[in-house]
Design a protein that fits this description.
With about 280 residues, this protein is an alpha/beta fold. It is built from ten helices and eight strands.
């Protein structure tokens, strides 16, 4: 499994690096990830237009992809490169495979949470001119990545000043089995989070995490979802909990399904909302 995944990810890196001059303003970088068993994985990075001519440090947005996608998704299916031009920030789009940005219960060498927190962020901070503090760091994502962004934002509030979810699978860690579930998906979920009695499920559940944080430590929260999305109810449940806990947040329920046009529109909102928080204006 790991060998096949490494082959797929290396192929994505090779493909992305093969076309560096298509008028894009992003780079593809590959690193060896200690917390993924030494696997080589890639990420895309958008640098501010004046990065090479300025000496300043820039805040960083970590932007996570969804289930069945890989790190090139955001620059492939949205106009993110264009949207980013108005902001003074670095945008990093890491690989997450189908790991829900969580350390796998079934395979300790697929520690996707540790990869992001202990491999990727230190690498970016040491190889680029970043503002390497909480106040210079944000996280966002769609679907599986929306879950990952909110979970990591709440689990590591000392690391992120803002967290945003677009169509997030926010109840992924504790979601009850449904008759409509695809058996392959259910097996994957159980492999990531473990059995129903695994205490790691609660430790990776945004609904539980947010209850255990002092309100003053919680990042800026933005949640958006399409009104026809199958994940609508768990998003409503999450923001209802935030309201009950008197935690500040912004929630938008917009026309649309679980689809790229909605995410292309909403990532513009995320950039605008997070920019003043992390100093990207």
């Amino acid at each position: 499994m790991r060998r096949r995944l490494a082959h797929i990810l290396h192929g994505l890196v090779a493909l992305a690096c093969a076309f560096p001059a298509l008028g894009t303003e992003y780079e593809t970088v590959e690193i060896r990830a200690a917390h993924l068993g030494g696997m080589t994985v890639g990420f895309n990075i958008i640098l501010p237009r004046d990065y090479s001519t300025s000496g300043r440090r820039y805040p960083v947005l970590y932007l996570l992809h969804g289930y069945t996608d890989h790190y090139p998704a955001w620059v492939s299916y949205t106009n993110l490169v264009d949207h980013a031009r108005g902001y003074q920030e670095i945008i990093v789009m890491p690989e997450g495979d189908n790991g829900f940005y969580t350390n796998s219960a079934a395979d300790p060498q697929l520690a996707w949470e540790d990869f992001l927190m202990l491999d990727l962020i230190p690498y970016v901070d040491s190889h680029y001119r970043t503002v390497a503090t909480r106040q210079g760091r944000a996280i966002a994502g769609l679907s599986m990545g929306g879950y990952g962004a909110i979970k990591l934002g709440l689990k590591y509030p000392q690391m992120f000043a803002a967290a945003a979810s677009l169509s997030g699978a926010l109840a992924a860690a504790v979601r009850q089995k449904r008759p409509s579930d695809d058996p392959v998906f259910r097996k994957l979920i159980d492999g990531v989070f473990g059995g129903r009695d695994n205490p790691e499920r609660a430790r990776n559940d945004p609904f539980t995490l947010v209850k255990n944080l002092p309100p003053g430590e919680i990042p800026q929260l933005y949640v958006a979802i399409g009104s026809q999305d199958s994940l609508l109810q768990e998003n409503r449940d999450f923001v209802r909990l935030l309201a009950e806990l008197k935690i500040p947040y912004e929630y938008r329920e917009v026309p649309g399904k679980h689809e790229w046009p909605l995410w292309d529109q909403q990532i513009q909102v995320v950039l605008a909302k997070q920019a003043p928080v992390i100093g990207a204006l």
